Amino acid sequence: MLKFITLCAIFTLISFTSCKSSNKEKEFHKKEHQTHWTYAGETAPEHWAEIEKNSDCGGKKQSPINIIDVDTKPQVEKENPLNILYSPSTKLKQAINNGHSIQFDFETGDSIQYKGNTYFLLQLHFHEPSEHTINGVRFPLEIHLVHKSKSNKYTVMSILAKEGTKSQLFEFFESFLPIKEKETKEIHKPLDLSTLFPENTNFYSYGGSLTTPPCTESVNWMVFKEPIIISVDEVLKLKSNMPKDNYRNEQPLNDRVVTLNKYNE
């Protein structure tokens, strides 16, 4: 009987210790899971490769970059490799404040073709100030239009913005602001995205990555050379709804080539 009681006591102690250890592991993994990238402090972009273990953030073909105009290579194709197939009434699905940016998701349907491949429009979001720089100049705002193919490859079109007069399209986007962090607003309204692009559609292209974790590489980038114009108030309204300076610094170009595609001249 004494032996049985002793065994029970040992079993209880082992179970308690095991449970305690298990709880510690759960707590550790919980804390580890809660460690998430941001734009400031110990989880800022310079630490993304450390805290996002299974990401490409430490890769050799990362974005954004500083584009030096005189170092770009002129296009060799006679025809523009980019064909924007947006409808005049693109369907805007919802607006989201994901804690990193203001994002507008689109309903399925619109697409672009790039070098013969089709990429479907997913969403657009904003970085303030810009992530890409041209000849070292950082613009007040950058817009990313994110597209994805059926084979899960990405193509992102980047539109830079400078301050000046009001933009009707921006007035439409900002009519859904303010929006609290982690909040989603349903929209389901049409809009004409063609008014978002600059008049001169010459663009730089290069192979890079997503500019936020997991920093997936093999992304086709097209950065329009000419910025669009929006008002100071529109920039400030977006800024007040996003983290301060939600941009990643320029990444090394390494052995990549930036092409200047000129089809307007």
TrEMBL record:
- Which key words tag this protein in UniProt? Lyase, Metal-binding, Zinc
Q: Which reaction does it catalyse?
A: hydrogencarbonate + H(+) = CO2 + H2O
Show where the Alpha-carbonic anhydrase domain sits.
35-262
Give, as one word, the top-level EC class.
lyase
Write down the InterPro entries for this protein, in alphabetical order. Answer: Alpha_CA_prokaryot-like (IPR041891), CA_dom (IPR001148), CA_dom_sf (IPR036398), Carbonic_anhydrase_a-class (IPR023561), Carbonic_anhydrase_a-class_CS (IPR018338)
PROSITE patterns in the cross-refs: ALPHA_CA_1, ALPHA_CA_2, PROKAR_LIPOPROTEIN
Keyword Zinc attributed: yes
Name the family: Belongs to the alpha-carbonic anhydrase family.
Which PANTHER family does this UniProt record tie to the protein? CARBONIC ANHYDRASE
Q: Which protein are we looking at?
A: Carbonic anhydrase
